[in-house]
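Question (not urgent): is this output format expected?
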Amino acid sequence: MIWKLLSVWLLSVSLQTSGRVPSVEAVAPFVSVFDVKQEKVVKVLPLTDRLQKQVLEMLQASPELFAGSSLPADKSRLVLHIPFASPVQVHNPLYPAQINEVYLFAEPRQKPKALILFHAKRSILVVLNCNLEKFMEDNDLNVRT
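Got this back:
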């Protein structure tokens, strides 16, 4: 109940201050980098058109289904969360529906893995054949730990 009241209050304040409610589409999604060792988000930046294009190219780069049953607990791992403003289609037989968001798992000396969350409320875990280190460097996603 308190959350509903708080939501109504925030909406009324928003209407009073701006005269209109901002649309969700007007706000660009953000990429966040989570450091497993530090147990926190260590970097956040907007998902630009260029960055989104590179992510889609990585998803098309000969993905393979992940054969394991779970990811090993690696404290040196970074996890990139990449939500899309609207569902995107990647043309590959492994991706049967539009994609809402991606979690990229970056581990030293390992091929990157991606948890793909589809618009159809399904998900898969794939191994990508791409140079994630170069992608992270090119997009200022590297984190010093």
